[in-house]
Structures are given as C-alpha cells and as structure tokens.
Design goal:
- It is built from five helices and eight strands.
- The longest helix has 15 residues.
- It has about 180 residues and is an alpha+beta fold.
- The mean pLDDT is about 95.
Length: about 180
C-alpha cells in the first residue's frame, strides 16, 4: 500500500523494512525526549514482525517522492489506542538530516488521512514530552489540538516531566 503526497510517499512497512524500523526505533539520538528507548535486538524485531503482519498497527516507511531510489528517511505509525472508541494513536520519526523541510508534517497529514478515511477512526491522538517543542508544533500544524498536560508523567533524564496530549476528531479533520 502506498500513499502519495506532494513531497513524500508513505509505503506500508513489510518484513523487508524491519531492520530499518529497528535501527530507527533503537537510535537514542532520535528519541531524546523518550523515557525509554528500545534495544536493537531480537525482541524488537519480533515486535515489528507482529506489527507488520497484524491489523492493530500500521507502520509506513517515509521516502522522498523525488528520490528514485526511494531511500527511507523515517517512518510514521498508527496503532489502536482505544478500540471500542475507534481511537488511534499516531507517532513518527524523521531522520535528523531530513527534518525541518516539511517531510514530517506532510507524512503526519497523510497518516491522519489514512486513519480517518481507511480505518474509519473517530479520533486520533498523539503525545509528546513537554520539552519536545518541534513535535508539539508539528501536531498543531496538522490540525491536532492540545487536549491536556499529564503532570509529571514521564521519568525523563532522571526527573519527572510533563507529557502533552494532542488529538483531532473525525469531524474536525473533515473541516480542516
């Protein structure tokens, strides 16, 4: 499955993408605002194997549309947050050398379109460390609004820090 935007293409991850997914997911320099970063081991590979072969999570590899070799520059994901409420959580990671060029925002917008149109979601949510200003800004630019702040939610760098909770409803997405 491919989703094309103006600048990027999202391609549903397959078994052949697991090494890239594991490399990105375990790169501590990419996840500096997370309280815990996975180890690049067999356990992480098993996690992604289950995800790419299941129906509870959708991982998409992000490539630049103009790149004929389709080298991956990151990935975006949506997974069931609250099944009975038709809510999906979104997440993303763009490699540092490709950040601040609009690729992340376009990828998130395409992912939200997939979540609402294909998965028939009622709501999409996203969360980030309060210190992660770029992530909060990107979610806002994509139509998500700050719903609240979970006080001292994350054990980050040896201290409890706040986490921001963003969301967008299907009805808001349609008018966006």
């Amino acid at each position: 499955m491919k989703i094309e935007g103006k600048k990027v293409i999202l391609t549903k991850a397959t078994e052949s993408d697991i090494e890239f997914l594991c490399r990105v997911e375990s790169d501590k320099t990419l996840w500096i605002y997370e309280e815990d970063v996975a180890e690049n081991d067999e356990k992480l590979r098993e996690k992604f194997r289950a995800r790419v072969n299941g129906d509870k999570c959708y991982d998409f590899i992000v490539t630049i549309k103009e790149d004929n070799l389709q080298n991956p520059i990151g990935f975006v994901s949506a997974w069931k947050y609250a099944d009975w409420r038709k809510s999906w959580e979104v997440g993303y990671s763009i490699l540092p050398q490709y950040q601040n060029r609009g690729y992340g925002a376009e990828s998130l917008k395409l992912l939200l379109e997939f979540v609402f149109k294909e998965l028939k979601a009622h709501k999409a949510v996203g969360m980030c460390n309060i210190e992660n200003i770029a992530s909060a800004k990107m979610m806002s630019e994509c139509g998500m609004r700050l719903e609240g702040i979970f006080k001292e939610e994350l054990d980050w760098n040896g201290k409890l820090t706040d986490q921001q909770f963003f969301s967008i409803l299907e009805s808001e997405y349609k008018t966006n």
